[in-house]
Amino acid sequence: MFPAGPLRERLANGLARADAIVMLHGKRTADDLPDRNWLRHFHKPILHARLEPSGIAPDRTLVAFAGLARPDKFFDTLDAMGAKVAEAVPFGDHHVYSEEDLAMLARLAEEHEAMLITTEKDAARLSPEWRARVAVLPVTARFDDEAALDALLAPIPWDRREG
Questions:
Q1: Closest of 80, 85, 27, 34 to residue 58, by C-alpha
Q2: Spatial separation of the C-alpha atoms in residues 85 and 109, rounded to whole Å
Q3: Overall pTM > 0.85
Q4: Nearest in space to 119 (alpha carbons), one of 98, 143, 91
């Protein structure tokens, strides 16, 4: 699913500039693969990856919150990891957290004697004071074909990759 909206680049323009496409999937089956008709004229690498936790969930009761397009993916990840989630609070994608939102989350955590946890994306939108109060579950992109990723990145000078 492509992001939509008046400030987004036209798909044809983005594909014309692209060196490759990275398709992020959950657990993939043949039935889950998207309709690729929009890719019929794209003849560059298409890499497949999935986001996986690269850390562990705290071993205590949690109140999870996320402002993603599909916050349930974050909550499902915590569940699959065996995390003890007392409350899962979804917000809209790109949610700007107000002090009222954060106070409500803090109250929920206190009621459940729990720790707040969120995504890296959401943590980046918190003030430093709130980030210090919230656990973050890091994720890493795992590519189906690491060699294809390495080949794509090989021509890029290391000093450009690090910046």
A1: 85
A2: 10
A3: no
A4: 91
- Contact present, 45 and 146 (Cβ < 8 Å): no
pLDDT higher than 50, residue 1: no
Residue 38 — pLDDT band, cuts 50, 70, 90? confident
How do strand 61-67 and strand 84-91 relate by DSSP bridges? Answer: parallel
DSSP, res 104: H
3-state helix/strand/coil string of 53-102: ECCCCCCCEEEEEEECCCHHHHHHHHHHCCCEEEEEEEECCCCCCCHHHH
As a three-state string, the secondary structure of 3-61 is CCCCCCCCHHHHHHHCCCEEEEECCCCHHHCCCCHHHCCCCCCEEEEEEEECCCCCCCE
Classify 129 as helix, strand or coil: helix
Distance CA 6, CA 10 (A): 9
Query: What is the identity of the amino acid at 151?
Result: A
